[in-house]
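Notes from the 1:1 (GR / supervisor)

We went over the backlog. Supervisor wanted to see one worked example end to end before approving the batch request, so GR pasted a single chain during the call. The sequence is below; no edits were made to it. Supervisor asked that the structure be written out right there so they could see what the output format looks like.
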Amino acid sequence: MSEPQRIEHPIPPLFDQNSETLILGSFPSVKSREAMFFYGHPQNRFWRLIALIFGEETPGTIEEKSHLILSHKLALWDTIQSCTITGSSDSSIRDVKANDLSVILDNSRVERIFCNGAASFKLYEKYIYPKTGIRAQKLPSTSPANAAYSLDRLAAEWGAAL
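Structure output shown during the call:
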């Protein structure tokens, strides 16, 4: 078991001026921090899910992933700017400093915010909603830890929302 560490979010937000929908995770996993990009763990179903919803090939490179997100007017980031965390465990997150979403909200068309999982949603409600006044919708987590949801079940719920 690894020791808790204070970690700063290392990945910049992914958005452009045409982004209309922001998808927020909680905080990058160890694998995502190593890859320096969102949803870097090979078992996370995020990239397969987004590709399935939009009828595209599952992206492999950061460039392909970025293109998939931006071409569908999406934006990606996380609720947490820094925290104390053990490994990749959302349940171990402490001492949270939330991300300032104004960099995205002021420079895009984002009007809808979705949270990838319960941890992201809870943190958004506590730290970010009071500042933005924009209600977020909680979607089932794409994490492999969310074994109750098959890829098809995730696609049904995420697809209806997106």
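Supervisor's comment: The longest helix spans residues 118-132.
Batch request approved.
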